[in-house]
C-alpha cells in the first residue's frame, strides 16, 4: 500500500497518525489470521493424523521421531476390507442408515406438516422428547422384545431403533419449514379440487424439498454414527461400521494402522457429505435450540 | 382414500404416533416395570417383584452409582464450561467478514459430524503413551510425558478434552448466529460515548448474548450428561471405575452383568434427571423465547 504524500503535504502530523493506525490494523488482522489458522489446525489435526497413520506400517507408526519420513502403504486398507470384512459392515451401515432415514421421512414429513398446519404442539413436544431422553432407557426392552421375536440378526431392530434417532431431527427441521411455507398455495390447490392429502403431496411436499434433503442428510449421518443401539441390537452378521471398528480393540495387540484405516473408511463419507451441505447441517444440529 | 381425506389429521399423525408409542413410551413403561423387579433376562425365570428395593439399594448401598453420578456431573461441568469459553472465543474470532470465512465455518463442522467411535480411536492413538503424537510433542518440548487415559486421576479430564474438541465448534456456531442477530444501535451509541473494545464486550455483547449462551449451554449439557460413545470405546469406564458415568454404568449393569432390574432402576433415575434438566431448558426458552 502506497500513500500519496503529494496530495496531503501540509498535514504530515495527521497522516503519520493515520499511517500508525493503518499499521496497527494490519498487525491486528495478521494476528487474527494466525489465530484462525491455529484454531483450524487444532480442529483438523486429529483427522490429518488419522489419515497419515492409515498409510503407515506398524513400524512407521511406532517411530515418533520421523513423522513424515515413511513409504506410504495401502496394506492397512487391504487388510480392513479383506481380513476384517469391512465391505459387509459398510453395506450394513449404509442399508440401516438409508432405510431408517427413508422410513423416518415417511412417518415424519406428514406428521411435521400436520403439527405445523393444525398447531399440534403436544406432538411436537413428544417428538422433541425422543431427542432428549437417554437412548439407553429403551435398550433393555428393545433387546428383550426383539430377541423374543427372533429379530436379532436381521436389520429390523437396527432400522427401527435408528428411526428413533432420525425422526426427531426430521420432525423439528420440517415443522419450522412448514410453518414458514405460505398456506395460500395449498388453499388455491384445494379450490381447484385437490384433496387435503393431494395438497400436501403435490404442493407442500415439492416446495419443501430443500428442507427434506437437509433433514434426510442429518438423519442419515446420525444413523451412520450411531454406536450404542447397534452395539446391543446387532449380531456378527448385521454389525455396522462403528461396532466393527470397536471390535478391533479387543484383539490382543492393537493394529494401529488398520484401526486408523477403518476410522478413515467410516469418517470419510460423512466428512464429504458435510463439505457439500454445510449450511444445512448447522441448522439440523441446533434444531430445537435456536429458532429457524 | 376418501376416508383418509376426511380424517386428514389422523392420517398424517397416526403413523408417527404409533411408532413413538411402540418404540418409546412402551419401552419406558417396561423399564419402569422392570425397575421394581429382579431379573436376569432368562426366559425360564420370570421377573420377581421386589418393590422399591432396587432404588433403595441404588441410593444407600451402591457407592459405584454415587461415584458415577458425581463423575457424570464433573465431566459435564468441565466439558461444557470449557466449550462455552472456547466457543465464545472462536465465535468472536470468526465473526464478521474475512478471506476464507465460509471455508473456516465448514471445516470446524467436521469434528461434530464425524463418527464418535472413529474419533475415539484417533484420540486413543494421539494419547498412546509410547507412540502417541501428544507425548512425542511433550518430549520434543522437554516436558514430562503423560499417562493420559492410563492414570485414574486424570483419565476423566482427558476424555473431557475429546468432548471439548468435538463440541466447541457447535457452541461457536450457535454463538456466532447469536452475534449476527445482535442489534447495531447500542454499539453505535457506545462508540459515540467512547467505550473501548473490552467495555463493549463486557457491557454490551455478553448481556445481549446471555439468552443464547444459556440456551447453548443447556443444550450441550443435556448431551454431555448422556455421553457414551467416546467413554465406552476409549476407556470402558476404566482404569478401575475412574471414568465410569451413569450411562456407562447402566450399560455395563444391563448388558455385561445382566442385572436388568437393578439397571432399570438406574436408568429410570437417569431418565428423570435428564428430563428435569430439559424441562428447565424448555421453561427457560419460553421465558426468553423472543430472544432465542
Automatic annotation (TrEMBL), chain A:
Q: Does the keyword Transport apply?
A: yes
- Its principal location? membrane
The yes or no answer to whether the keyword Ligase is present is: no
**Which residues span the membrane?**
30-52, 94-115, 122-145, 151-178, 199-224, 256-277
**Membrane topology of the entry:** Multi-pass membrane protein
Gene3D superfamilies linked to this entry: MetI-like
SUPFAM superfamilies per the UniProt record, alphabetical = MetI-like (SSF161098)
Which top-rank group of organisms is this from? Bacteria
GO terms under cellular component: plasma membrane
Keywords noted in UniProt: Cell membrane, Membrane, Transmembrane, Transmembrane helix, Transport
Protein family:
Belongs to the binding-protein-dependent transport system permease family.
State the protein's name. Sugar ABC transporter permease
Automatic annotation (TrEMBL), chain B:
Gene3D superfamilies assigned to the protein according to its UniProt record, in alphabetical order: MetI-like
Where is this protein primarily located?
membrane
User: Could you identify this protein by its name?
Assistant: Sugar ABC transporter permease
Lineage from the top down? Answer: Bacteria, Bacillati, Chloroflexota, Candidatus Thermofontia, Candidatus Thermofonsia Clade 1
Q: Which InterPro entries match?
A: MetI-like, MetI-like_sf, Sugar_ABC_transporter
Q: How does it sit in the membrane?
A: Multi-pass membrane protein
Identify the species of origin: Candidatus Thermofonsia Clade 1 bacterium
What does the UniProt entry say about where the protein is found?
Cell membrane; Membrane
Family of this protein: Belongs to the binding-protein-dependent transport system permease family.
* Entry's transmembrane regions: 12-30, 73-94, 106-126, 164-183, 204-222, 263-282
One GO term of the cellular component aspect? plasma membrane
Biological process terms in GO annotation: transmembrane transport
